[in-house]
Amino acid sequence: MLYLAFEDDFQRIQSRMFMMYGVEDSEKLYFATAANKVGQGLNDQLENFIKEHADTKLIIIDTMQKIREFGGEAYSYASDYAIIGQLKQFADKHGVCLLIVHHTRKQPAEDSFDMVSGTNGLSGSADGTLLMQKKKRTGLDATVDVVGRDQQDQILYLKKDPHTQIWNLERTENEPYKEPPDLILKAVSDLVSPLVPTWMGSPSELASAANINMAANALTKYLNVKYGNLLDEYSIRYENKAKHAWRQVVLTFTPTGESKNKS
Question: Per DSSP, what are the bridge partners of residue 169?
Fold first, then answer.
């Protein structure tokens, strides 16, 4: 994890970490208090970090204002959409979660997400938006409104521990949505394991081997969409390669991040 804490210095970070976690430490947690701006070298800096720390899954930028270019259109819809779009492109390329901290306006709004500083281009380009609010400035209770493209709308109710300053989840407004088991992915996953880590064959052979009653081209189209689920849930990497006049499907068991489904 990389935390770009632009509004802190290392002494403050160290003090806060001690308050939250005591003397516990992690070799996979990195901090930086300065970086270049978007379009002026930040992307190269993040690329270099990923090269050195390939297992990075989370990067936090605190705050967005510190990485924005200054200019006459700093708060136009187009520029807001573009800055998030560039960061999202980086996140998608490397398969990391990029969490960007941003400020809200002081004026209340009928739609709470209209309080996000800037234009709708920010939320329009991002995969999701989380809006944290406290009823009282000095209170220990807060809510986090969550909206996103591939997730249900949700409200999280939090309470702060005054001793550690950690926000703990008390309850949620809605029950988290759970996708029903995907029988096609389960059948495909049964073809590989730690003992048989690779399977190769044509799309037709895949449908036959997995005993899936689906046309070969429909199955590969389905897996083209669901390859991320196959990797996340079953630790299986899916490839559909062109081989002259035919296609070859390759399934590879990847023990890194092995899921409970294969344990």
Answer: 158
**pLDDT for the residue numbered 104:** 83
Using CA atoms, how far apart are residues 132 and 139, in angstroms rounded to an integer? Answer: 13
- What's the confidence (pLDDT) of residue 27? 87
**Dihedral angle sign, alpha carbons of residues 56, 60, 61, 62:** negative
DSSP 227: H
Q: How far apart are CA 187 and CA 219, in angstroms?
A: 12
Question: Can you tell me the distance from the alpha carbon of 152 to that of 108, in angstroms, rounded to the nearest whole number?
Answer: 24
Distance CA 239, CA 201 (A): 11
Find the helix or strand (DSSP H, E) in which 188 lies: helix 183-189
Instruction: Report whether the peptide linkage leading into residue 63 is cis, meaning its omega lies within 30 degrees of zero.
Output: yes
Residue 82 has a CB neighbour count (10 Å cut-off) of 16
Per DSSP, the three-state class of 23 is coil
Cα Rg of the chain, angstroms: 22
3-class SS shares of the chain: helix, strand, coil, % to 5: 35, 25, 40
The pTM for the full model equals 0.70
Q: 159-169, pLDDT tens digit by residue?
A: 999 999 999 99
Q: Which residue has the tokens 């949620």?
A: 172
In tens, the pLDDT along 178-211 reads 778 899 999 999 999 999 999 999 999 999 999 9
